[in-house]
């Protein structure tokens, strides 16, 4: 190596060493900066979480939890709620079409003359009127395809388009009271929330307009179907009352099919969607001079979903438990041997006794007062036939609803922590006028830890 090369070598080593030290210092500085950023992000997330009031809506399926969420939205953010009315149109169309298809199937109105049920005692002793058979033939295929199309647009999976299913014997046919309460087959999930549907799918208007046209064509036959005495007597003979089920729009076919129909607040409250998983709904509300976020967690209530409830218990400020006043003569869709009221009381007891929720106040909604009235007064259902302990009390709405309320409060007193209160309301969640003061009472519980409109237990 030349003398010049020897003289450069120490300088190069010194320069490389300095570069290494500088790179190490820069890396350390970047690491410190990243850690600070992470700490700041965590602090922002913590502060943001602390600013939210987390409200859990629990209870069995088909009790009306999602309808309660809609009541919160209507009561406290009415402009936003009403601005999204059009997004509920395909859901309401699907509710109506599904109800009609289920009735056609349940009463075998579209089976061929040669296709006799294997063991249906009712159909073997009652001949289907020819006008009804013709009516079913006119609308069955159209509405079956429309139901599949609407389900396919709303849900991430749906049954393939097909004609009406073949007739099934009574022991194979699911109870209509379960089927009518379902928008589509079990196991499917919504692609998006209804309020996001219009923006998410460019085909939204095409599907809605096509459904409107088909319903306009079928509306007179739907009205004739629902008004026909044979249909009413046939459903009644099987203990089936579609008017008692969620998503009941059978009398509204002509209105829903009209060119300028837009869902009303009452329509949106009545619209039925199954909650396949937990859904969070954020509401920004004015609290004094501040703006506060309420996070409503609507958790699915079927047996298969209840195991996941505990993960939502952290940071909950309030539990709203929604139970149905009409569950006493119904059975679970998952197990027809289990009474719905018995299952609901057990579920309520478990919530009251849960140690993770021991300091969380409870609001109890005993819902579906309107359907209770229809069962007791119109359908003549005797409550004592299903709840023996009721004994000889009057079979009227005030007495029955009060008795059911006491059944739940007895469970609360026995299994709940003595440190917290429960606020019980008998509700009709599809009646916004009646629900508005209830929403105000719940707001008072959240904001002031007391309720001014009723006396806590």
UniProtKB/TrEMBL annotation:
This is G-alpha-domain-containing protein. Pfam families: G-alpha. Gene3D superfamilies: GI Alpha 1, domain 2-like, P-loop containing nucleotide triphosphate hydrolases. It comes from the Eukaryota. InterPro entries: Gprotein_alpha_su, GproteinA_insert, P-loop_NTPase. PANTHER family: GTP-BINDING PROTEIN ALPHA SUBUNIT, GUANINE NUCLEOTIDE-BINDING PROTEIN SUBUNIT ALPHA HOMOLOG. It comes from Hohenbuehelia grisea. SUPFAM superfamilies: P-loop containing nucleoside triphosphate hydrolases, Transducin (alpha subunit), insertion domain. Keywords: GTP-binding, Nucleotide-binding, Transducer. Residues 151-178 are annotated as: Disordered.
